[in-house]
Design brief:
Blueprint (H helix, E strand, L loop, with lengths): L1 H26 L2 H5 L5 E8 L11 H7 L3 E7 L4 E7 L13 H18 L3 E7 L3 E8 L2 H13 L10 H10 L5 E6 L8 H14 L1 E8 L1 H4 L6 E5 L6 E5 H25 L5 E4 L4 H12 L2
Parallel strand pairs: 3-4, 3-6, 6-7, 7-10
Antiparallel strand pairs: 1-2, 4-5, 8-9
Helix pairs in contact: 1-4, 1-5, 4-5, 6-7
């Protein structure tokens, strides 16, 4: 147990170093430009200087002081980011060295360290077919390290997947305009379009919602020679299949399901990104930021 804890702490530290390097060099101001504040708020009045926009003149103060003054506004910058991450049994799947939950931790770290660099708050919901764990949004390095550790080590009570309870929970607790990252492989009955349509549409109206679709290379391009025995990571059911037939059926079902999901995302005007284990997830997030630049 102690050895495993040391391994986890080492992994958290490595993720922190990698994330901070990316945030400080590659992303630069892209995070801040991609995620806008909720508007502007009045800050102060000051003397008018030639070149100031005359529309900002405060006529009441100007009349009292017999000298032109202008209103100064600042962006209401502080944001709340909530990461809603799938912690069901499928997160432990990995056809290569990296499991999907490891990739979810790295993605979450990038967004979290970008948030704290800009003095924003970040929180976490881990869900299976229910809300398993909630870490309220806060600021600071210690909080972010806690968040990453939770993703890596949390053991859910259920191995099934249904995002709706977590989506409904977020609707009730978050302020309007919060940024919500929904991170999952989006696989399973719980992600059926008819099932998630209403809560997802409500979230899209209230928040800046971004689905992050995390897949294993096997789920993208299954290599299935001969006969294959598969165990469902969530139900534990084991079945035997012919590899070629299974691959064709798997791709057919996956593509049909993804097409319905993307249509739902498009209807609600949602940005989203696909990230595959072993590929350059940093570049994928960078492209997301680039698309959202004004």
């Amino acid at each position: 147990m102690e050895e495993r804890l040391r391994e986890i702490l080492k992994e958290v530290r490595e993720i922190e170093i990698e994330s901070k390097k990316v945030v400080n060099t590659l992303f630069g101001g892209e995070y801040k430009s991609s995620f806008k504040g909720r508007g502007v708020e009045f800050h102060e009045v000051r003397d008018y200087f030639p070149g100031d926009d005359i529309r900002t003149i405060d006529w009441n103060v100007t009349a009292r002081m017999n000298h032109p003054f202008v209103k100064r506004f600042i962006e209401e910058r502080e944001l709340t980011i909530l990461i809603i991450a799938d912690c069901s049994g499928s997160g432990e799947f990995g056809s290569r060295k990296e499991q999907k939950k490891d990739l979810i931790a790295r993605i979450s770290a990038l967004f979290s360290f970008s948030a704290i660099k800009n003095n924003d708050k970040v929180g976490l919901i881990l869900f299976s077919d229910k809300v398993e764990h909630y870490l309220p949004p806060r600021k600071g390095r210690a909080h972010t390290l806690h968040l990453i550790r939770d993703i890596l080590v949390f053991s859910p009570e259920s191995r099934e997947t249904d995002p709706v309870p977590a989506m409904e929970f977020s609707i009730n607790i978050l302020p309007h305009g919060a940024i919500v990252l929904l991170v999952s492989d989006f696989i399973g009955r719980g992600f059926g379009v008819e099932h998630i349509r209403m809560p997802l549409s409500l979230m899209a109206k209230k928040f800046d919602l971004i689905p992050l679709i995390v897949r294993d290379p096997f789920e993208v391009n299954p290599d299935l020679p001969g006969r294959i025995m598969l165990k469902d990571a969530e139900s534990g059911e084991i079945q035997m299949f012919k590899g070629r037939e299974l691959k064709g059926k798997f791709i057919e079902i996956r593509d049909a399901r993804d097409e319905k999901l993307h249509r739902l995302f498009n209807i609600n005007g949602l940005d989203r990104i696909h990230i595959t284990s072993g590929e350059d997830y940093i570049a994928a997030i960078h492209r997301l930021f680039q698309r959202r630049l004004p």
